[in-house]
């Protein structure tokens, strides 16, 4: 046991200090209202996002964020970001900008913000430009270098095919007509999971939305995303100047 403790201590020292505890103001700037969910809502959203990795990891990240587990939130948002999830890329930019769950790094924050704005969604573009104005010359040069590496791993050119492959895998496992026939009468329900275990017949979660054709068709899925992010109301959070910028 003493030997294991010694190894654990040595590993911790080698890793160096972790990120500092974020201030309440920083947490408020990074936390989204939609991170807060009831148990029933989380259960339903878990079931609905189960077949789409970007939505599933994004949901796990939101749960970790609201519980203050920011290190895990960072990891989960990064996983979602690999599947062309622009909202998760945006959340990563805010975490790096405010130093929540990670060492504060404005250059990396901008690189993630630039990636989130890849499809020119107005709210993400505005935030990216606000961040750029706050960077000094050295930070801007560093941000551009970081951005090249991020685009190679998380840009739409490589990330969209990952999600398309996941959708294809889901479609091959679905039951029903192989010709794609749907007369609109199919309804899918799953029991809701509550504190007491499995719910009864009166407590059911309507699951038909999972099988909506647009959710498993890459072209339609991104068309819906474009419509939402270009014309809908979204939470982006402010890019505020901090003492560390001075």
Summarize the structure.
This protein is mainly alpha-helical and 246 residues long. The chain is built from eleven helices and four strands.
Biggest beta sheet attributes: 2 strands, antiparallel
The residue-averaged pLDDT reads 78
**What's the domain count?**
1
Strand fraction: under 5%
Span between termini: 47 Å
**Strand tally:** 4
Proportion of residues in helical segments: 55-70%
Succession of helices and strands: HHHHHHHHHHEEEEH
- Contiguous low-pLDDT stretches (5 residues minimum) are 1-17, 177-208, 234-240, 242-246
Organism: Lysobacter panacisoli
Protein name: Sel1 repeat family protein
Pfam family, one: Sel1
Describe this structure in words.
It is a single chain. The protein is mainly α. It has one domain (27-170, 188-239). The protein has helices at residues 2-15, 24-30, 39-49, 53-66, 70-81, 86-98, 106-116, 122-134, 137-154, 156-173, 218-231, and strands at residues 189-191, 193-194, 197-198, 204-206. A two-stranded antiparallel sheet has the order 1-4. Strands 2-3 form a two-stranded antiparallel ribbon. Strand 2 (193-194) and strand 3 (197-198) form a beta hairpin. Helix 7 crosses helix 9 (137-154). It is globular and about 50 Å long. The chain starts with a helix and ends in a 15-residue tail after the last helix. The model is unreliable at 1-17, 177-208, 234-240 and 242-246 (pLDDT under 50). Pfam families: Sel1. This is Sel1 repeat family protein. It comes from Lysobacter panacisoli.
């Amino acid at each position: 046991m003493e030997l294991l403790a010694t190894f654990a201590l040595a590993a911790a020292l080698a890793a160096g200090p972790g990120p500092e505890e974020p201030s309440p103001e920083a947490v408020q700037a990074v936390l989204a209202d939609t991170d807060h969910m009831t148990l029933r809502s989380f259960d339903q959203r878990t079931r609905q996002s189960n077949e789409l990795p970007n939505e599933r990891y994004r949901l796990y990240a939101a749960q970790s964020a609201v519980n203050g587990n920011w290190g895990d939130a960072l990891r989960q948002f990064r996983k979602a970001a690999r599947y062309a999830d622009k909202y998760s890329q945006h959340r990563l930019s805010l975490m790096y900008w405010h130093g929540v769950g990670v060492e504060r790094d404005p250059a990396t924050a901008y690189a993630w913000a630039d990636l989130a704005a890849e499809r020119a969604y107005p709210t993400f573009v505005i935030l990216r430009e606000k961040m750029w104005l706050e960077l000094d010359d050295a930070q801007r040069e560093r941000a551009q270098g970081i951005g090249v590496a991020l685009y190679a791993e998380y840009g739409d050119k490589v990330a969209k095919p990952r999600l398309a492959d996941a959708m294809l895998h889901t479609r091959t496992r679905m039951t029903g007509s192989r010709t794609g026939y749907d007369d609109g009468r199919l309804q899918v329900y799953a029991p809701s999971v509550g504190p007491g275990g499995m719910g009864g017949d009166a407590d059911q979660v309507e699951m038909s939305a999972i099988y909506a054709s647009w959710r498993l068709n890459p072209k339609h899925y991104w068309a819906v995303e474009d419509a939402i992010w270009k014309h809908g109301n979204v939470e982006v959070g402010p890019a505020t100047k901090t003492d560390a910028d001075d």
